[in-house]
Amino acid sequence: MSLEDCKKLYINETLRLMKEQPDGFCRVTFDSVLCWPPVMLDSVVIVPCFSELNDVFYDDSQNASRYCLANGTWSRPNYSLCEPLVYSDGEPEVRIYLIGYFLSLITLSVAMAIFVYFKELHCLRNTIHKNLMWSYILTYCCWIMTLLMLYYGSNMSVICNFTVILLHYFHSTTFFWMFVEGRCDCFP
Description:
Blueprint: H1 3-9, H2 11-20, E1 25-26, E2 29-30, E3 35-36, E4 39-40, E5 43-48, E6 52-53, E7 56-57, E8 63-68, H3 91-117, H4 124-151, H5 157-183
Antiparallel strand pairs: 1-4, 2-3, 5-8, 6-7
Helix pairs in contact: 3-4, 4-5
């Protein structure tokens, strides 16, 4: 936006104030951040904060203010309520995800050990269960590897891309094994 854009935006209000305020008023101005509308002398104008400035996002639910002095000039704008949005780095969420996935890996590994150790559990139905569990184990391993590479800033983009491809592949295989479980005629 420019000063010319501001003037066009507030042309009707400027014309109205020219008629109503023969003693003068504060004219439209643009301070390279916000467009300030024309107002009567000795008054405050409040406008919403900008949503972005220099690639930094701000809380636009707050307001900026500026005072129109009695001599028709503007005071300095007050941007104190226009604060940058602070995003969490997500570390607590990442820890919760990792704990959940590691717990799932542990329980799936215990279940796989039980299926492998006890020979009397070997049957077609349990083989399908084992394949489903393997697909979950591999999905979780790829997910953890992808998360660690992305979160801790690894510069191995080829390995990261390959891991994401594997993650999607193993994730889709879990659905295929679920379909096999649902379709299997081995259940009585």
